[in-house]
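Submission sheet (multi-component)
Chains listed below:
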Amino acid sequence: KAGVTQTPRYLIKTRGQQVTLSCSPISGHRSVSWYQQTPGQGLQFLFEYFSETQRNKGNFPGRFSGRQFSNSRSEMNVSTLELGDSALYLCASSPGQGSDTQYFGPGTRLTVL
Amino acid sequence: AQSVTQLGSHVSVSEGALVLLRCNYSSSVPPYLFWYVQYPNQGLQLLLKYTSAATLVKGINGFEAEFKKSETSFHLTKPSAHMSDAAEYFCAVSDISGGSNYKLTFGKGTLLTVNP
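Outcome: structure written.
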């Protein structure tokens, strides 16, 4: 099976802009989670979607949002970008039930100038 | 809230030596515990996981970890380090408080350097 894919891999934006990142889970997986990785804060959970519904949410401002489509692909959006949003954004997919393992994609490196 | 502490942000070993990466967790319920590895400019790769079955868990690439409830620890070991093991390692615990097993709380990571 193909792994988790994320597009784009690299992105450069300026403050105030918005950005949309995309994640395609492993075929058959219904759960998609998003994480932000920065040198200062480490890996932090953003949110998790299962069958198009947000099932869990981390402690991030409302500028961070996401959605999941019927084919389980997910997008996350960050509006009004700030310098501190520069990070590696990781998507992880899972079948979605029980103690399932999360499988991570390669990430999208976002740089905000 | 659950938390994970990884002792030592940087561990350096010689090739062929024992690798020991420490992880302690805090959880009010039986946790699910994971070790992931991250190579430069890549995502996270699962090494192994503990989900309340055997306390000694074997993973990929010769790694294993032992769950010790009394010590709230889940240390990662490998008997003999290889140059290809150089990477950053993350310990994580899953949080089921929100009704989902999929909120992972990560430690700060340990960068493993392997010297020839």
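Remark: The radius of gyration of chain A is 13 Å.
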